[in-house]
Prior knowledge:
This protein has helices at 3-15, 18-30, 35-46, 53-61, 65-89, 96-104, 106-141, 148-165, 170-192, 201-208, 212-222, 242-271, 287-295, 298-332, 351-367, 370-397, 399-402, 415-431, 433-457, 465-473, 478-491, 501-511, 517-527, 537-549, and strands at residues 278-279, 282-283, 498-499, 535-536. By secondary structure, the chain is mainly α. Strand 1 and strand 2 (282-283) form a beta hairpin.
Amino acid sequence: MAKNSVENLIRGVAKGDIKGVADEIKNSLARTIGLAGVVIISLSAMLPGIFVTPTFAAQIMGPGIWLAFLLAASVVLPGALSKSELSSGMPTSGGSYVFLERTYGPMVGTISGLGLWTSFLLKSAFALIGFSAYFVAVTTYFDFEIDIMVLSMSALVLITVVNILGVSKVKAVQTPIVIMTVLLLLVICIASLFSPDLDFGRPIDGAFSTDVWTLAETAAFVFVAYAGVTKIAAIGGEVKQPEKNLPAGIMLSLLIATVLYSVIAFLMMASIPGEWWIVDGEVVEDPIYVFATHVVNTEFGIIAAVLSVLTMISMALAGILASSRFLFAMARDNLLPQPLEDVSVKFETPHIPIIITGVAMALAILVVPLKDVVKLASGFKIMIFMMINSCVIVLRQTSDRHDWKPAYKGPLYPYMQLWGIIAGGFLIVLMGSKAFIGGGAAVIVGSATYYLYGRKHYIAPDKTPIATFREQFGLGSPTENERRLTAFHAADLGGKGHLSVREFQNALLALGFSYSVDESRAIFHKSDEDENGVIDIEEFFASFISTEEQ
């Protein structure tokens, strides 16, 4: 953090300018991620899609799948533009869940939050299933055996533990993996141009001889490959000049992924003759390995398989992180029980949502076939993108009443959003019963969760327990403030100077404050400026003492 920023923070705390302090913190965090960082994070969430989907798409459509990737990108584009606008107008963590909850209310927020959680964990499960297929190629080459299900479960346990430990350098690991993956894919594409079996007619004829219904069904299936393009919007507050870098980064990463996916799909089908994507009646689950082996040699294919394993594990690692945060964010809004927002005393991470997500992923890996995992994940993501597009329409049409003034506004409104909604609905229809079953299950479970729990505990924005708490807390004498500070430090079981929501509630009870569980949660959430599940004791007290002295 720059020296000037630190001075501004100190000056703001001294004056009691809490809003100014929060704004300065957001501005300081914004300096950590530039345009390149936005592109890296978006690509890291998207690239694993190309390692599994081509062969399953070819099973539906044949060798013309490159056109399906282009069509899917055109349906993703409106959602990417809409999310750029929403994130510039609501720069907070939580991403799509926050946008939908703030636009449509807590019930839709509950449904969408659980749906997003499911889609993210399914995509992560899909990465671990795909990773195991590439690992088989490695074990076969080096002539040793390992139970693939045991391997997948072991990898799942490992990345779940890593998420609980709160390793902070995941992005630093992802950057070289993304760069190496892109370079590898480019090398394979260049090598394919020298393949003796190269025939551009195969993918071209395959694309334009297919009926529009099959093309659209395939586009719906590969939609999941683009689902991570807007992931960066969830941390928009950490992006430098978000009104410029967010839309530019999202559009650039979408362009790179679209070109890469389409070119790889085209050259893959042009280079390898026959219906190679089916072997002994089963779909090949490691297409990049087969592609690299065919156009270069087996040794190079093994290198591609190893890098594929690293890429998909990296994606699954980030996937658990992202999906678990939906449960955490919903609990912070009192739409789910408090244990889901409790953070580990030692590691200060939301360990219960992480464990629940890991268990759900394990069930998906054990029970759901890979193709169905892809379909369910794609179906959920298409529905969410449709809703995100509708959010922009609602907010723009009611901007005079809700003061909707985002720093960035997407072009071609409302035609772009309408295309995203109509095309998305069309793709869902073509995906068949599984998309409807998945969407229906999300609506039923989300509605039941809201009516059984969320409606009773949700505190509307106009109800502010924090205002009452400020009045009561600000009346303390120096001796009383010292007693309160002692009680708060006594509640700090981790000894880190931070309080989780549970520890905060214990401190309030010890001091005799009579707030309900939901009210104390609301007070904690308001005080947790950076939304990481803990509050700093000294900063918390400094804010109230400064307010009292004004």
